[in-house]
Amino acid sequence: MDIFEINGPVRLSGSIDVAGSKNAALPIMAAALLAPGESVIPTAPDLVDIRSMETLLESLGAKITRDETGLHLNTTVIDNPVGDYEIVRKMRAGICILGPLLARCGKVKISMPGGCAIGDRPIDIHLRGVKALGANIHLESGYIVAEAPAGGLVGTQIFLGGPFGSTVLGTDNVMMAATLAKGTTVIESAACEPEVADLANCLNAMGAKISGIGSPRLVIEGVKELKPITYPVIGDRIEAGTFMVAAAITKSRLTINNCNLDHMLAVTDRFRQIGVQVEKTATGCEVSMDSFIHPADITTQPYPGFPTDLQAQFMALLALGEGNSVITEKIYPDRFMHVAELNRMAANLRKEGPSVIIAGVDKLIAAPVMASDLRASAALVLAGMAAEGKTTVQRVYHIDRGYHRIEERLNAVGAKIQRKNI
Ligand code: EPZ
């Protein structure tokens, strides 16, 4: 098992290229199921979660290869529409084969996703959506079995809102299923994340007829067939935000390439409140921090609100703030596994229901800490770069799920992170 040994404090300088978006690539890989033939994603990131999705698609019958031109997905033959428990339980995003397989094969069997460190991951809204399109659903020993009517799915008006607002992968699933349904589907309370918009733009390039992209109301006019596509996904705004926090927490200046600040307005708003300079460049942005860290209050919300996937990283930054901050998690109320670990590094964090009260401290002290989920792990790496001494982060496989060789890319701009296999 790999661990990170991180020496701090460090100063960073130089530029980092952000990879293609994990959360755009995963549903777009599933969308390839809608169009028999070979689709290519030139900017698919090389991540553990992407490889898990490759394994899942190959178990359905797809052939997948990667070369210098990108990820090649040949979905000519899909003869086993079953999403295996062993794969889906490890990666929740596997659920987004539900909609495409229902539309293409008329029947799909997929394991209920397991829970994970950030809390319960229900799929009731996904099922509400495909049922509204006419699918019959029943549970069979932990698997969902969904079958389309003999004549195929039928478009309708669907409300996809839930207790925590919209659902990203739920919107993806229903939108993909609706592209090949008879008639028109209207999705109310659709997720507006840029990754959902990227999927919709990809589907339209494949021949779908989707309007209202980026808005909470999507209108999908069913078509007879879709064509395979070559489609480069957008840059990963969460990876970009993580690297921007790296510059801020180490009081450095970094150039971040391949990120679209138009997708990060809630994030840059909080950076400015904290005293971080963020300047737009032709290919991304320049981030610098030369003052003390001002306190700030953050509440996570569906897009365009502050993204839950940057909550842990900002908590590491505000732990060193001059004063008290409050972070409230409205998407995953249990997404606070990083609180105890940051407190082991001398942070002063106190959980109060869905919020954490952050009393800023002058410095963090290196300590052995445990990664628990993808973004909490990133927060511990960021804290380790600012803390005094050598921090060891265990269970680094969590971070490899969403960041490609993060230690190599941070070391290239001045970090001191060693990956060790113990
Ligand atoms: C996507 O997950 C992302 N994953 C998550 O990123 C991200 O945190 C999340 O959206 C929220 O932005 C991918 O895109 C692969 P949701 P998703 O359905 O679609 C509740 C990362 O770190 N809900 O938008 O699974 C749910 O419990 C990952 O890259 C229901 O109640 O999230 C949550 O509270 C972590 N019923 C809220 O909605 C449902 O049927 C939002 O979840 C579905 C969701």
Describe this structure as you would to a colleague.
This protein is an alpha+beta fold and 422 residues long. The chain has two domains: 2-19 and 235-421, UDP-n-acetylglucosamine1-carboxyvinyl-transferase, Chain (Alpha-beta prism); 22-221, Alpha-beta prism (UDP-n-acetylglucosamine1-carboxyvinyl-transferase, Chain). It has helices at residues 22-31, 48-60, 85-88, 98-105, 124-132, 168-179, 194-205, 237-249, 265-274, 311-318, 337-344, 374-386, 397-400, 406-411; strands at residues 2-8, 13-17, 38-41, 63-67, 70-74, 82-83, 107-111, 136-140, 143-147, 157-159, 184-188, 209-211, 217-221, 253-257, 277-280, 284-288, 297-299, 324-328, 349-352, 355-359, 368-370, 389-394, 417-421. Strands 21-22-1-23 form a four-stranded mixed β-sheet. Strand 15 (277-280) and strand 16 (284-288) form a beta hairpin. Helix 5 packs parallel to helix 6 and helix 8 packs parallel to helix 12 (374-386). The chain is globular. It starts with a strand and ends with a strand. The structure holds ligand EPZ. Ligand EPZ binds next to helix 1, helix 5, helix 6 and helix 12.
